[in-house]
Amino acid sequence: MENNVGSVDRLVRLVGGAILIAIGIASIVHILHAGTIVGVIATLVGLVFFGTGVTRFCLLYQLLGVDTCKAP
């Protein structure tokens, strides 16, 4: 697997993913009143974002031919 997620993109994914995970978990345990389903969805999306930030590889980017690692 070749990296296709650049530095800025990676940072946004890591921070955004962590925030979504926190919101999702807070919703699941009823700290936030967004609902359990919303909490589960936010947690799953956050995990995907965080995971793609850690691995620096995004399958959707590969399928669409997007690469934010390389300079234009």
From TrEMBL:
Alphabetical UniProt keywords: Membrane, Transmembrane, Transmembrane helix
Domain of life: Archaea
The keyword Transmembrane is annotated on this UniProt entry: yes
Ranges where the Inner membrane protein YgaP-like transmembrane domain occurs: 1-71
The protein, known as: Inner membrane protein YgaP-like transmembrane domain-containing protein
Family matches, as InterPro entries: YgaP-like_TM (IPR021309)
TM stretches of this protein: 12-32, 38-64
Keyword Transmembrane helix: yes
